[in-house]
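Wed. Picked up where I left off yesterday with DNA polymerase I. The coffee machine is broken again, so keeping this brief.
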Amino acid sequence: MDGAAPNAAAGSGATAETQPHLILIDGSGYIFRAFHALPPMTRPDGVPVNAVFGFSNMLGQFLTKHVGSHIAVVFDSSRKTFRSDFYPDYKAHRPEPPPELVPQFALIREATAAFGVAGVELDGFEADDLIAGYAKAFVETGGQVTVVSSDKDLMQLVRPGVQLLDPIKQKPIREPEVLEKFGVTPDKVVDVQALAGDSTDNVPGVPGIGIKTAAQLILEYGDLEGLLAAADKIKQPKRREALLANAELARISRRLVLLDENCPLPSPIDALLARAPEPTRLSGFLREQGFRSMLHRMGLDGDTAPESAPVSRPRQAFQLPGLQPEAAAPEPVSTEAAPFGPYETIADPAQLAGWVAKAQASGLLAIDTETDGLDALNANLVGISLAVAPGRACYIPLRHGPPPGTGDMLQEAPVAPPQMTQDQAVEALRPLLADPSVLKILHNAKFDLEVLGRAEHGALQLSPVDDTMLISYSMDAGRHGHGMDELSLRHLGHRPVSYDEVTGTGRARIPFTQVALDKATAYAAEDADVTLRLWQALRPKLLPQKSLALYEQVERRMVAVLREMELAGIKVDGAELARIGEDFTQRMATLEKQIHELAGKPFNVGSPKQLGEILFDEQKLPGGKRGKAGAWGTDAAVLEDLAARGHELPRQVINWRQLAKLKSTYVEGLAAQIDPRDRRVHTDFSMAITSTGRLSSTEPNLQNIPIRSEEGVRIRRAFVAEPGHVLLAADYSQIELRLLAHLADVPSLRDAFEKGEDIHSRTASDIFGLPRDQVDKEARRRAKTINFGIIYGMSAFGLAARLGISPGEARGIIDAYFSQYPGILEEMERLKSEARETGYVMTPFGRRLWIDGIQAKEQARRGNAERAAINAPFQGGAAEIIKRAMVRMPAALKAANLSARMLLQVHDELLFEVPQGEVTATAECVRSVMEGVAELRVPLKAEIGFGANWAEAH
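Structure written out below (tokens, as returned):
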């Protein structure tokens, strides 16, 4: 980077330290992001304040990191603007703001003033127009402007002296970023938008022309008017016709998207001078809203504001990459007790001893490991990070080599940086990590515990442990992701250094072991720092959100259970797997031959393009639809629809695809995952991925092996027990239906479960009015379909498709079902209502399951969300029942003096490896735990089998 600010106005003579800098914050973006990111909150008098809290927090965080000579938050004043006068449909389809947000608009403006920041708005103009106007006026005075927004409509403003700043990624947006987004330079963005339109704002554009095509046309013809003048000469007929027919719409669209940089400025530029907030006013505002945590964090909870309260740094350069020389280091404005870094690199035992003492004194220690891979059971430990308080973190490098390109030409090889040996670090840390008086805090603790617990890393044991990922997941399953970076942005307003930033990307990427220690420390120690801060932010919320018991009794205890299961793994018979693969290959070849005969010619069955041409171009089958690229769609839904209409070719292709997927995923995939050291596969259980609380597994994924198909049974035969042992499978019987009977409190279903009757035959008898001894297979099949379909919110059309009957007949069955079991319909309506009112539903054990899209305007999306709301408590409840059994199982087996090992959990099933002489006793112990883990209105039942392989155990 050169020494001059690249965005400085030419000829101004200003330097980065003296040039005026205006920061324009897009207020609307902050408001709506804050509102949707936070749960409902009210202040003591009942006024909703979640958006006020989020906005204040974001504004406060922003002011701690960035300093300008001038600053303003720009708001939209009203929905109607000058654009509505010449195009009434502009933004007309946008819904009114949520009722609970409306009273917060005024409070957010009060917050802006309380922080000492100017707020500007003007009737008849959008905030974007004001931003354009102020940007133009300020640059003309010789200043530079940063617009804090990622709104694509503002990218037309980028020019020398004006840039955008993405508020989430904290990255500047300049001409290269605009070029990447629109395919043109900023001065041509308006023309591209005029052609492409924008459905979000009801900007019509030209039908059939998207961003990519629009950019190509503008680059070829110069601008919109040049294109329209030459439209009749365009060779592509559809494109030519669209442009000629919609030329006036394109011109209107350009007027709609063009920002009015000559709009009136409601406040003079001098009124935007940065100034310090008046402490009494700021603290008074925060107290009035009940924001005690923010008061404390800003040091304003005493009678007077301390020196760390926000202060103004007029005419000081804004701290962003590329806007000032790297050597310039303006003093930051901070409302936080501690910044993120700088951090310390630990190179010798004496330094580490000091950090051990700090951790023992604080009673808290956040830990993170750096490895050379993502497989915890095989990756090498590269370094360890520690944090003892916010901003107080360090990194202990253990396996770092010299960065690329270093070293003296006279030396035979570059020299590695000074660092401790692994043995030195392990022995220094061992007493601390085992100290029960020091809480160890990790994010995704299972990974780090597996890495540190391996013998080659010193077999370190950590206790006690908290996991910030699981704390978040216990409260917010389904609401958002639970990765550290996402949680940091959401709860701390901080974007951590990314792995790509320190290692590079693509071919330029270097191993983390070759990253220079200063950069490695900044990245790795920050992870520990963020983990500690997340723990401080999230742990206190568990109790008020009624998630503490779930976290303490289930999720946290699952870490150790799953760790042992992953270490154990399950043995796979490679020879049997090879035989299965050969059988699948032969069957696929036979199917392929049949498919070619049905098609009348050979073709690549695995090619969707060729298949589509056979089905729809040559055989003229009905229902074909082309995708955007022009190829026929041949996904599973298309083929299943054609097969249901009696067409044999798509039916055989479905069979071929199923075999191909099983072969690649479970035959070849499993073979590649077998550990040569023990001939077992060690799946990785993911604890915080699903929206319902269920576990998932990867490498290999053992959750999706078909249960009832012949092929699924074949694959299960390859999972075997060690000599002298058997595999014991314990499967909850119809657990989701039992939860349905429990939650809906259906007397006849409860009676059937209590008596051990066949639940589907009982249902058939009830809804079809049949004597129980006259229920045939077809009636039972229909009852079974609707029993399980109801849990998934199946419609009459869905039931009709499953049963092969008319929608009217299916509706009659559903009506009879709800008439017989009215409690089920009431429970379904209650769940949908609960989701609409709160955004989540609850499992029987108190876990909140957030339902995405429940308030969506689009009927299809809202319908999917409603079905998810109905199903979530049953899937989530089943997940928690089996988790509760899993956390109790090790102690129960140990108390019974049994040596069985729990190997796998697949949905409602647990799989154990059991010595042959302990099968009966283990079965009794497992059944006792599984059936006694929860008290429902109906009994839980575990079905148990055993055999030499997994298939035999069913």
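Quick read: The chain has a mean pLDDT of 86.
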